[in-house]
């Protein structure tokens, strides 16, 4: 069992502008944590610090007890931190199955076997099937990505990210651009994620947040305003005033 992710005193400044202020929090293994806050709160900056896109001014990022703060973006993916859209874009002319095969072949070092059919590895084909079952997209296996609804494409992107076997999965606005008629697909997919995977959801859709998160962190001006259960967050006067609005008052 891993220890999960621990962030200690994480700070980021651009000149005199501090965009992350002494962030300290944990994402235990298997946790479902949402990061919310008004526009400009620093949510994207925080995600970029975790994935290695940005280097912190100070502070530590620990994964399973190991300091990963010096690792670059690619090395952090290998260490176990993955973000949707970070891994790869979809190949629209390929089928769902073919899209999923590519990152697994790359991960297993099989991409250079030019004289062997790409679908000739039985274990890899079994893993592709398992991934599709996990996200309930097996009926789409042989459809070209270009023919899928947008919500279905987001599920394939999620499957691609899971194919690198992350320990921590960052979902950056997973429902963005998904029509309301398809948003249930995203909610169901998040609920089906492996129970030992730590998931951080950065999302504006509060209905989705309250459906899938068991813990919420509220970020304001680069600092943590509060963290707690959904019930604790929704009843906090400061949070309602700053972010949730009249619909939750």
From TrEMBL:
Coiled coil: none annotated. PROSITE patterns: ABC_TRANSPORTER_1 (PS00211), ABC_TRANSPORTER_2 (PS50893). Belongs to the ABC transporter superfamily. It comes from the Bacteria. Keywords: ATP-binding, Nucleotide-binding, Transport. Residues 5-246 form the ABC transporter domain. InterPro entries: AAA+_ATPase, ABC_AA/LPS_Transport, ABC_transporter-like_ATP-bd, ABC_transporter-like_CS, BCA_ABC_TP_C, P-loop_NTPase. The keyword Nucleotide-binding applies. It holds the Pfam family BCA_ABC_TP_C. Gene3D superfamilies: P-loop containing nucleotide triphosphate hydrolases. One of its GO terms (molecular function) is ATP binding. PANTHER family: ABC TRANSPORTER ATP-BINDING PROTEIN, CONSERVED COMPONENT OF ABC TRANSPORTER FOR NATURAL AMINO ACIDS-RELATED. This is ABC transporter ATP-binding protein. GO terms for cellular component: plasma membrane. It comes from Sinorhizobium saheli. SMART domains: AAA.
